[in-house]
Design goal:
This protein has about 400 residues and is α/β, with parallel strands linked by helices. Helix content is about 30%, strand content about 25%. The chain has twelve helices and 19 strands. Strands 1, 12, 13, 14, 15, 16, 17, 18 and 19 form a nine-stranded mixed sheet that branches. Strands 2-3-4-5-6-9-10-11 form an eight-stranded parallel beta barrel, surrounded by five helices. A hairpin with a 2-residue loop joins strand 12 and strand 13. The chain is globular. The two termini are about 40 Å apart.
Length: about 400
């Protein structure tokens, strides 16, 4: 029996009394992935990206492990909810226009001490001040650096379009704008190199593309390491007591951790290891989050139909954004139908071994987004479900 076949047998036994659709997290794999992230971070703390987990129980589990400290959140409402729930170090990774949230933050000493907001433009300070509604607490601020690699005098850009702050002088000027402004304090810098951390460099069947990605990423790492260090030096001239410099992601942990200027690493997807993280030469994780759909039809030889399945991931549309049939091995989508909203036909000789009611296990393309489809996660240890816990959605929250 292959390792994957053994996993399928375990998951089927563990969920035998549960009707599909059902979602699980394999805690043995989850913990092993956490250990691997800590190993790659080389002693620097890992801030957990909550959007890649979206389950308070699992956030608490990983933060209880040595090597993890703090949360990187994705909306202000989520940040405040987590802070009210007892998480005392929450970095909001994106600027917000949530006026009600800012009013709550500025009026509550506990929330203001626990939550750090993200800015890259003084106009965002204006919005926060206008939303204070009398709240006078000092708002903790993190400045985001644009990490994109610019070539040919800026005519070619590689990287996400996030912050407009690219140079040390630009970031330092915004730091000065914050320092001049009552009610705000710069406490950190964040720089997420998504074109390194979030792009696989070993695409199956694409050797030339994979080599091009590796060359691009090596150049991007060199350029960013030099520029990030210069940015930190420039900001520390304005803010000598800067608390943290956050960088990286699951795909770049060890590279980012090697930079002296970086004090902590962000990572979250590496805990669940969705399918988009199969194509990396730098690490191999264990799939920990899966969902199962039930076989409801057998339309013909070599075909079964499962209920549901159309759970595409965010990003540029493409086949790589679809969940992948994982267990049993050997199933594939019908190219004329793909993953359907209500039903999904699957092709392959192994389909003839599946019976009505059997489970087919899938991996989502991205971490965390799976939890927007399920109210609960069943936590599996060995071949048993040892706990059933709510996702954000199961607690009544869809933050974005």
């Amino acid at each position: 029996m292959t390792a994957r076949a053994a996993d399928r047998a375990r998951y089927d036994r563990a969920t035998a009394q549960l009707d599909a659709p059902v979602a699980i997290v394999d805690l043995d794999a989850f913990d092993a992935n956490a250990d691997d992230l800590v190993r790659r971070a080389g002693g620097k703390p890992i801030r957990v990206a909550s959007k890649s987990v979206r389950c308070r129980t699992l956030l608490e589990r990983v933060l209880a492990r040595e090597g993890f400290a703090g949360i990187m959140s994705f909306t202000l409402a989520e940040s405040l909810w987590l802070a009210r729930s007892g998480f005392d170090d929450v970095l909001l990774a994106y600027p917000s226009a949530d006026r009600a949230g800012y009013a709550e933050l500025a009026a509550d000493p506990k929330l203001a001490a626990a939550v750090t907001v993200m800015i890259d433009d003084p106009a965002q300070l204006d919005l926060i001040d206008a939303a204070r509604a009398g709240g006078s607490e000092v708002v903790r601020v993190c400045l985001e650096l644009d990490t994109a690699l610019r070539l040919l005098g800026g005519r070619v850009r590689i990287g996400a379009r996030r912050s407009p702050l690219h140079s040390p002088a630009q970031v330092a000027e915004v730091a000065r704008a914050v320092a001049r402004r009552p009610g705000f304090k710069v406490v950190g810098i964040m720089a997420y190199e998504g074109h390194v951390a979030g792009v696989g460099d070993a695409v199956a069947g694409r050797p030339l593309r994979s080599r091009a990605v590796r060359l691009m990423q090596a150049a991007a790492r060199r350029e960013l390491a030099e520029r990030r260090a210069a940015v930190v030096r420039a900001v520390r001239e304005v803010v000598p007591d800067l608390e943290f410099v956050n960088g990286g992601g699951t795909g770049s942990v060890q590279h980012t951790a090697a930079e002296d200027a970086v004090t902590e690493i962000a990572a979250g997807s590496g805990l669940y290891v969705p399918r988009l993280f199969d194509n990396y030469t730098s690490f191999r994780g264990r799939p920990a989050a899966l969902f199962a759909l039930p076989v409801v039809r057998r339309p013909g030889v070599g075909v079964v139909t499962v209920l549901g399945g159309g759970y595409p991931a965010s990003g540029a549309p493409g086949a790589d954004r679809l969940p992948v049939p994982y267990l049993p091995e050997g199933l594939r989508y019908d190219p004329q139908e793909g993953a359907g909203e209500v039903q999904t036909p699957l092709l392959g000789p192994v389909a003839d071994d599946l019976l009505i009611g059997d489970k087919v296990w899938f991996r989502h393309a991205k971490a965390g987004e799976l939890c927007e489809r399920f109210d609960t996660l069943h936590l599996v240890e060995g071949d048993a479900v040892t706990a059933t816990v709510p996702t954000y959605r199961g607690e009544g929250h869809t933050f974005l």
